[in-house]
Write a structure and sequence with these properties.
The protein is an alpha+beta fold and 169 residues long. It is 28% helix and 18% strand.
Length: 169
């Protein structure tokens, strides 16, 4: 299940998760994924230059979400290094796995709205994530960010990368 590619740069990629793997409904804050510039199992595998550029892409994307999504007014972003489901014994290939061989780190930007109606995303509480076995039914209930929303986020992220972070987007 591929994500929707929204922006590709030397610093990494911004992607929108597709159903059924949407962790946060757009009305509860929405979610995007930022992929590193190359596949790594942990961010410690990135060079200093790659790591710095990746961090700036994450920050610009998160700030853009906060700037353009009305549902995030007075809200915040949770940053989650992910790739853990690839290590589940039930994930392909079945059986025990080691991080360096199977995990592909990426960062979920999870919008947190003070007006969230989801019991898993209540304002002021830690988010609740599904178990691996429940991930598809969980995500099928959530709507991804719409094209107009992701378009505004990418436009704003490009602006921030150029003006605030002095990077070519």
């Amino acid at each position: 299940m591929a994500n929707d590619l929204l922006l590709a740069t030397d610093a990494g990629r911004i992607e929108r998760p597709r159903k059924p793997l949407v962790l946060v409904d757009r009305n509860d804050g929405g979610a995007l994924i930022v992929m590193p510039p190359r596949p790594v199992w942990d961010r410690t595998e990135l060079s200093p230059v790659e790591l710095a550029a990746f961090a700036l892409l994450i920050a610009a994307t998160a700030r853009a979400m906060l700037d353009v999504l009305p549902q995030l007014e007075d809200g915040c972003i949770n940053y989650w290094d992910a790739g853990n489901w690839a290590l589940n014994d039930a994930a392909e290939p079945p059986g025990p796995k080691r991080g360096p061989e199977h995990r592909r780190m990426h960062v979920h930007l999870l919008g947190r709205s003070p007006r969230s109606t989801s019991p898993s995303w209540q304002w002021g509480e830690s988010p609740v994530f599904p178990c691996y076995a429940d991930r598809l039914t969980w995500g099928a209930r959530h709507e991804p960010l719409r094209d107009d929303e992701t378009g505004r986020i990418v436009t704003r992220a490009r602006e921030l990368l150029g003006s605030r972070y002095r990077m070519d987007a």
